[in-house]
Design a protein that fits this description.
The chain has 226 residues and is α/β, with parallel strands linked by helices. The protein has a single domain, classed as P-loop containing nucleotide triphosphate hydrolases (Rossmann fold), CATH 3.40.50.300. The chain contains eight helices and seven strands; from the N terminus they run αβαβαβαββααβαβα. The chain has a seven-stranded parallel beta sheet, sandwiched between helices. Helix 3 links the parallel strand 2 and strand 3. Helix 1 packs parallel to helix 4. It is globular, with a radius of gyration of 18 Å. The chain starts with 11 loop residues before the first helix and ends with a helix. Bound molecules: magnesium ion and zinc ion (ZN). The site of magnesium ion has 4 residues, from helix 2.
């Protein structure tokens, strides 16, 4: 059945239920935000398609950062990403979402106590790998950082505008592979700004270390302003 002919999506009752669920999520997100502020930490929501290098970025961040951070991991199954971060000394809490293709504010709330946020400066929430619906679910974080890796292609910004419009920062990852995939970083930079002027784009590679310093400088700047 096509979306257009799906009667549920035009049903006022369904739309009303969906809007109630999103409103309830906003309330939980506001509670999370209040908690983060009380602990004096900067909370960053990392979003991207699967395999763009979110966990790898966090591993590289762990090696270079001069601040303490924890990570809330969201995946449909497994503790793999949390285990990878624990292996480099990062405090990580894994949320297993089962069938949910995004994190919501309530899931994040459950991770707050086990992580012990009062001893941290920054909290990263690594959302479920998905360029679509994580953008529509507020978590209470201060910033949205969206990753796009060079193998995914430089055409994705305008194809997923809902996600990229939410980005406070775009990271082009695996930039060491750019020429193999004919990936045009400047085009991405332009299209990001077309959707949301003044949004910076940093090209980086966890492999070569390119851009990591700029990434850390961005976080430092946000921490000072937060
Ligand atoms: Mg990951
Ligand atoms: Zn979803």
């Amino acid at each position: 059945m096509s979306i257009e002919s799906n009667p549920h999506l035009n049903n006022p009752k369904t739309l009303e239920v969906m809007s109630r669920v999103l409103k309830a999520n906003d309330t939980e997100a506001a509670a999370n935000r209040a908690c983060f502020e009380q602990m004096g930490l900067l909370a960053i929501n990392l979003m991207s398609g699967p395999g763009s290098g979110k966990t790898t970025l966090l591993e590289a961040t762990a090696k270079a950062a001069d601040f303490r951070f924890g990570v809330i991991e969201g995946d449909l199954e497994t503790e793999r990403d949390a285990d990878r971060l624990r292996a480099v000394g990062v405090r990580a809490y894994q949320i297993v979402t089962g069938t949910s293709c995004h994190l919501n504010a309530k899931m994040v709330q459950k991770a707050i106590n086990p992580l012990g946020l009062d001893e941290l400066d920054v909290l990263f929430v690594e959302n479920v790998g998905n360029l679509v619906c994580p953008a529509s679910h507020e978590l209470g974080t201060h910033l949205n950082v969206v990753l796009l890796s060079t193998p995914e292609g430089d055409d994705k910004v305008l194809k997923y505008p809902v996600m990229f419009r939410k980005a406070d920062l775009v990271l082009v990852t695996k930039v060491d592979l750019a020429e193999h995939f004919d990936f045009d970083v400047q085009k991405v930079r332009r299209e990001v700004q077309q959707l949301r002027p003044d949004t910076p784009t940093i090209a980086l590679s966890a492999k070569t270390g390119e851009g990591i310093e700029q990434w850390l400088a961005f976080i430092a700047q946000q921490r000072n302003g937060a």
